[in-house]
């Protein structure tokens, strides 16, 4: 979802970092072979993830929602040399695709895939993280926050994607629309939680950045 005009959007992209060749390949193959290719973060948001990761320079990164691995590779660009990126996805059909691209990158040995429901995997991760990207099923965003907050180091960052939910956050809530309800609840939860400071950035479909105090 783009909230600014196409011309302005083109200008914004043109005046931002170029997309690395490997990520262009990954995007092409995702569009050729994988369902719902629009789920992938893409060039502009990917460069934002990369730059934020470089600013944070995390040791450990957690990603909830790998899809074909685009955002994981962007986040890995800022990871410390001895760092680890743990990425979770429930869809086993994506596993080999992800691995192929992780291994084509320089970060392959540092990227660990976890296959299964993030709600079950997160409690078993015996690690703390400096950067966490939440980009899976919207209905569980509040649950993910509650599971990860104690695994986030002080000064660590949570990035949450799709927090404007194609603008539906402003529409009257339909009783059966569980995803929008969860996004609304999540946006309130992270605004009000005293353990973090939060700014919602109107980038693409909405990207919130929260820092642990
Ligand atoms: C929007 S896509 C992630 C896109 C990816 N972060 C990127 O930017 O390229 C969401 C992913 O979350 C995964 N997912 C959905 N529910 C999940 C769950 N309960 N546990 C783990 N992964 C889940 C889906 O299989 C899908 O691949």
UniProtKB/TrEMBL annotation:
Keywords: Methyltransferase, S-adenosyl-L-methionine, Transferase. GO terms for molecular function: O-methyltransferase activity; S-adenosylmethionine-dependent methyltransferase activity. InterPro entries: Cation-dep_OMT, SAM-dependent_MTases_sf, SAM_O-MeTrfase. This is O-methyltransferase. It comes from the Bacteria. It comes from Pseudotamlana haliotis. GO terms for biological process: methylation. Gene3D superfamilies: Vaccinia Virus protein VP39. Pfam families: Methyltransf_3 (PF01596).
């Amino acid at each position: 979802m783009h909230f600014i005009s196409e011309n302005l959007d083109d200008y914004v992209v043109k005046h931002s970092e170029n997309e690395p060749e490997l990520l262009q390949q990954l995007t092409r193959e995702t569009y050729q072979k994988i369902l719902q290719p629009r789920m992938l973060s893409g060039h502009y948001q990917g460069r934002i993830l990369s730059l934020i990761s470089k600013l944070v320079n995390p040791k450990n990164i957690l990603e909830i929602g790998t899809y074909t691995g685009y955002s994981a590779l962007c986040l890995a660009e800022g990871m410390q040399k001895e760092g680890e990126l743990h990425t979770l996805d429930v869809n086993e059909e994506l596993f080999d695709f992800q691995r192929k691209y992780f291994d084509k990158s320089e970060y392959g040995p540092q990227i660990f895939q976890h296959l299964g429901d993030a709600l079950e995997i997160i409690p078993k991760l015996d690690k703390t993280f400096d950067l966490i990207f939440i980009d899976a099923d919207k209905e569980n965003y509040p649950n993910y926050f509650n599971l990860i907050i104690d695994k986030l180091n002080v000064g660590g960052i949570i990035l949450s994607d799709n927090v404007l939910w194609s603008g539906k956050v402003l529409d009257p809530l339909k009783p059966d629309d569980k995803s929008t309800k969860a996004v609304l609840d999540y946006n309130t939860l992270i605004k009000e939680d005293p353990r973090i400071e939060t700014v919602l950035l109107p980038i693409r479909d909405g990207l919130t950045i929260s820092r642990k105090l």
